[in-house]
From TrEMBL:
Residues 29-112 form the Cyclic nucleotide-binding domain. Pfam families: cNMP_binding (PF00027), HTH_Crp_2 (PF13545). One of its GO terms (molecular function) is DNA binding. Signal peptide: none annotated. The lineage of its organism: Bacteria, Pseudomonadati, Acidobacteriota, Terriglobia, Terriglobales. It comes from Candidatus Sulfuritelmatomonas gaucii. One of its GO terms (cellular component) is cytosol. This is Transcriptional regulator, Crp/Fnr family. Residues 143-213 form the HTH crp-type domain. Keywords: DNA-binding, Transcription, Transcription regulation. Gene3D superfamilies: Jelly Rolls, Winged helix-like DNA-binding domain superfamily/Winged helix DNA-binding domain. PROSITE patterns: CNMP_BINDING_3, HTH_CRP_2.
Length: 270
């Protein structure tokens, strides 16, 4: 008796992520619309088919910070796969129009257990996300805010990803950029103007990132000295010390013994 394979068809992860089906559906998300909000039940994972999104958290005192930016091919909401489903730890919001596949928690767990090609793909994504998080931490600890801004702009333009970079980054405010690199909006404005004058970026309705900006991150090539540090003054240029009204009195007190100082202080007029 011949044995036949119950399932002659092979699983295609790309087809699974491209189409709706049991436990998954395709959704359209408009700019500034949320995929989910911090504190919502973590019951699904989203696969971004097109568009850009951002991941943000809000502290107990109401301060919001942007954790990372998401682009096509990224998963978001993977915390729903924990052993015990909990609440969302962050909020995911569309930066521009997005199309995403929403996969229910049960379906996501099933396909990861049954289809090794998909679990391999998802594991590679998690490792890449972990490496990106570590790189963000190192960047925050050791690099200047100007260099951190250059790195964020390159990531948004998708330099380093397979294929040609986008060069044009999605709409983003200077406040959001300041949150991501840990500085003020005024400093971001200063650096952006500096990058434009040096030919690293250009403005034409949208921000376009040029390949020359890679030199700032990879080769640390910025003309002049660090623009974040004030120039060191020589002795001849040192700032004058502003005299105070009681400088002579303080100079005299410096040479007094404690007993004599207190004796003279008692004789001073109130």
């Amino acid at each position: 008796m011949l044995m036949t394979n119950k399932n002659n068809s092979t699983f295609d992860p790309a087809a699974f992520l491209a189409h709706a089906g049991l436990g998954r559906k395709i959704i359209d998300v408009k700019p500034n619309q949320t995929f989910f909000v911090q504190g919502d039940p973590a019951d699904s994972v989203f696969y971004l088919q097109s568009g850009r999104a951002k991941l943000t958290v809000v502290s107990q005192n109401g301060k919001e910070a942007t954790i990372t930016l998401l682009s096509a091919g990224d998963f978001v909401g993977e915390e729903s796969l924990a052993a015990v489903a909990g609440l969302r730890l962050s909020s995911a919001t569309a930066v521009d129009a997005c199309i995403a596949l929403k996969i229910g928690r049960e379906e996501m767990i099933r396909v990861m257990h049954e289809e090794h090609e998909f679990s391999d793909l998802f594991m590679k994504f998690l490792l890449a996300r972990s490496m990106r998080t570590q790189a963000d931490l190192v960047d925050q600890l050791f690099n200047s805010s100007e260099k951190r801004l250059a790195r964020i702009l390159l990531l948004m333009a998708e330099f380093g990803k397979p294929g040609e970079p986008e060069t044009f980054i999605p709409p983003i405010t200077q406040e959001t950029l300041a949150e991501m690199i840990g500085t003020t909006r005024s400093r971001v404005s200063f650096f952006m103007n500096r990058f434009r004058k040096l030919g690293f970026i250009s403005y034409n309705g949208r921000i376009q990132v040029h390949k020359s900006l890679l030199n700032v991150v990879l080769l640390d090539q910025l003309p002049e000295h660090n623009s974040e540090k004030p120039p060191i003054l020589s002795n001849a240029q040192s700032l004058p010390v502003r005299p105070t009204m009681d400088s002579p009195l303080r100079a005299a007190r410096a040479n007094m013994t404690p007993a004599r100082w207190h004796s003279n202080r008692a004789q001073e007029p109130a």
